[in-house]
Amino acid sequence: MELLTRKFTAQSVALATGATAKEIANWADRGLIVGQREPLGKGFKRAFSWFNVMEIGGAAALMRIGINSPADAFAASQWFSHGSDGATGYMVQDDDAIREDQDAERLPGLPYHYLDGTTYLCVSGGKAQVALSRDGTLDLKEINRGLNVPLGFIALNVSRLFNGILQRMALSSVEVLDEAYGK
């Protein structure tokens, strides 16, 4: 998939994510962005991967909705953007037994396929949990267990974030997800 192998400039990342190029340079200089930990000399331009685009977009959104620590925002966003647990974390009841639904798969840097539901990144302090909402609600029992029963947490709608980033890049989120998941 071409999007996942493309390289992006700081300016194009800023336009896609809503962060400023100055913020991105600051975060990179502080070593907060994966693969951008080495300082560059004058005149050198950074190249960002798709996973960095989602990492920066997620961290910036988390800071806008209440996470004060850039380090915590980036840690949660990196966990989502550069990794995947594969499973949904979505629990279903089947013949009086509760089991994990293995039908949905999440790839690194992408939300679950839109036909599977809405993807959320739930964050409390240094802990993060990806949650899939199939019916517009979040399974608080599962999220609390994944976050070690926090006093509270912030939930970022990653599906909406992803759609917005791709819209600003003049790409279709439906087409990208269909191609990525082979649907």
Describe this structure in words.
The protein is α+β, with helices and mostly antiparallel strands. The chain has one domain (2-181). Helix content is 41%, strand content 14%. The chain contains eight helices and five strands. It has helices at 2-5, 10-17, 21-29, 50-64, 70-81, 140-146, 158-168, 173-181, and strands at residues 91-94, 97-100, 118-124, 127-133, 154-157. The strands form two sheets. The chain has a three-stranded antiparallel β-sheet with strand order 4-3-5, sandwiched between helices. It has a two-stranded antiparallel ribbon with strand order 1-2. Helix 4 (50-64) packs across helix 5 and helix 4 (50-64) packs across helix 7 (158-168). The radius of gyration is 17 Å and the shape is globular. It starts with a helix and ends with a helix. Residues 87-100 have low confidence and may be disordered.
Poorly predicted runs are 87-100
Global mean pLDDT: 86
Radius of gyration: 17 Å
Q: What sequence of helices (H) and strands (E) makes up the elements?
A: HHHHHEEEEHEHH
Largest sheet: 3 strands, antiparallel
β-strand number: 5
Provide the structure class: alpha+beta
Structure at a glance:
The chain is of the alpha+beta class and 183 residues long. It has helices at 2-5, 10-17, 21-29, 50-64, 70-81, 140-146, 158-168, 173-181; strands at residues 91-94, 97-100, 118-124, 127-133, 154-157.
Spell out the key features of this protein.
183 residues, alpha+beta, 3-stranded antiparallel β-sheet, two-stranded antiparallel sheet, 8 helices, 14% strand, globular
